[in-house]
Write a structure and sequence with these properties.
This protein is an all-alpha fold. The chain folds into two domains: 151 residues, no CATH class; 42 residues. It is 88% helix and 0% strand. It has seven helices and no strands. The radius of gyration is 27 Å and the shape is elongated. The mean pLDDT is 87.
């Protein structure tokens, strides 16, 4: 690993992922910031404490922290996307009527994202966090699937489904009320007939 490799990783992977994370969550992550702080500390030590093996060991450690920061940012970004997709998944009206993709495509994308996340978690657990590259790639794949789902939400349909949902709730409550009144009348008549 060289300082140039570290810089390229930081510029090409970390910065775009972290920028996206901050954009969608509206806040910076202390976990990711701590990894970058550790990387900068190792980089500073590599610059100030001579050369040789100690310098290379610190550059390698800094590289490892930046890779871990990339993976942590990807996990947090995935989590923010998952929370939004979970809302769609838990709301039948939105998942069936407010997407510009078929319900089958929605389920397929969600299943593929879940498969990627399970793979990422499995690799992370099996390698004790040492194969961060594959974990990162699987999180990116899951993020892309969830982004496709979120991009398919039609705001016009979403706005127009709200009155329908309210009307349906009122209708079901009204039907329940009428059934309750009818049951009460029937029970009263049956009681009066039984009593006489």
């Amino acid at each position: 690993m060289s300082e140039q490799d570290l810089f390229e990783l930081y510029q090409s992977r970390f910065k775009p992922m972290y920028a996206d994370l901050v954009a969608v969550t509206g806040e910076k992550s202390l976990v990711v910031d701590a990894q970058i702080e550790s990387a900068m500390s190792h980089l500073a030590v590599s610059r100030t404490n001579g050369g040789g093996l100690a310098r290379q060991a610190n550059i390698d450690a800094a590289y490892g922290h930046v890779v871990r920061a990339c993976a942590d940012a990807a996990k947090l970004y995935w989590l923010s996307r998952f929370k939004r997709v979970k809302f769609i998944l838990n709301d039948d009206y939105v998942s069936r009527w407010c997407l510009n993709i078929s319900y089958g495509d929605f389920v397929r994308l969600h299943t593929e994202a879940e498969h990627a996340i399970k793979g990422a978690r499995r690799v992370d657990a099996e390698t004790a966090g040492h194969d961060v590259e594959e974990v990162f790639q699987k999180y990116v794949l899951a993020i892309q699937k969830y982004e496709a789902i979120l991009a398919s939400v039609d705001p016009y349909k979403l706005d127009n489904i709200r009155p329908f949902r309210l009307l349906n709730i009122v209708k079901s409550q009204f039907i329940g009320f009428i059934l309750g009144v009818c049951a009460s009348i029937a029970a009263t008549l049956l009681y009066e007939w039984w009593k006489s």
